[in-house]
Amino acid sequence: MSAEPLPTRREEDFRYADLTALAGVWPVAVEAIVVAAGQSAALSVVNTGDAPVARELSVTLAAGAKFALHVLNAGSAYGRIAVRAELGAGAEFTLGAAQLGGGGQVLELITNVSHAAPDAVSRQVVRSVVGGQATANYLGKVHVAPGANGTDGSQSVRAMLLDRTATANARPELEIHADDVKCAHGCAVGELDRNGLFYLQSRGLTPPEAKRLMLQAFIAEAFTGAADEATLQDAALKALGDLL
Amino acid sequence: MLKIDNLSATVANKPILKGLSLTINAGEIHAIMGPNGAGKSTLGYTLGGRPGYEVTGGSVEFDGQDLLALEPHERAAAGLFLGFQYPVEIPGVSFVQFLREAANAQRKVRGEAPLSGGEFLKLAREQAALLRMDMDMLKRPVNVGFSGGEKKRAEMVQMGILGPKLAILDETDSGLDIDALRVCGEGINTIMRRPDKAVLLITHYQRLLDYVQPDFVHVLAGGRIVKTGGPELAHQLEEHGYEAVAA
Description:
The complex is a heterodimer. By secondary structure, chain A is of the alpha/beta class.
């Protein structure tokens, strides 16, 4: 194996990375996923362990192929999931991700979705909940190649800070080189609605129960429609419980 | 049941309640009326324990306990229900899930066994029917997309499900049309007019009191109770205004 140098912060995709933790798992082998024309595939990545994790997925979707990726990034150490996806004509890429952390860990999701041919669809829904000194990052690029008309891409990115000491970095990016495209991105970082929390508590829920209920609703959208939705929601709920 | 003694409270360092005293016994229904800015809602929120409502003096005893020492959820478990003037929307959380968790959280504090899914749904269905609310609405996210009147009826359904000893109802009548006002009024009577329960109605208008007959009517002005009387006082207020009656 050639000695691939550890990235530096000057590289955009590693700007907010925990490089010390990354050094322990470097280099990261690329996991290639190829979905043939007209076929469908799905993958769920659940990271809830104690060891640093870095994964790099390279997804290639042929014409009309569909791929659904769901990510629960909620380990207690550094967790990095990087996804590169290249979409053929009429292909469909779905990403639903939740990142939950409350220690001092960095959790990050880096996506690079390339609409290389016309009429492909990409949907990204990312929900992060961070407390303590934790950091949640989302760096997401959507690239639309010249001639990839009929592209439909969306990024919905939201983060909830449980403490003022936690950090969320969200950077959805669009790079469009075609004329007839539909691309939308939304990004918000906020705190739990205090009026809502008081309302729930006034009915008898303890503060952690009230928060859990609101956060459960906040992240639910990330896993809506997943084949193993119930399993993912349960795992996320457990991680939320640990967080509170 | 509730003994408020010389209560003072501030909101954002501004004194709102200035030595308010009020005693409510089991089996009684009290109405507090008063002009805008008198401190009516502040009283409700202070008793409910809302953050930002700072007690600066006085005491509140509820069923023998120091109410002010309890967290909001502990006040609920002790039997206090606060009906909100503006019920809060909680996207993504269904009424059914929320209320079952809330009811069971209260039961846990009281050392009672949790309600099963079936038991809870039966209770919820009965209370929804009482308030003429479609059970399907309780499967929707809390208050999201509800009209003003639906939110208030949903508050009463919650009260019926949670079965409090004391209900403090903050302007339950605002935003209600005539039919909804009657339904809510009847709901309050059915759920709360019992020898072991009590109600504090906070309202601007006489009209709710046509359905829920109070035993006592108080006028709140300038952060304290300035006049107390029977149901006739509400009629006088309606007719002559706060300034004339409370002067």
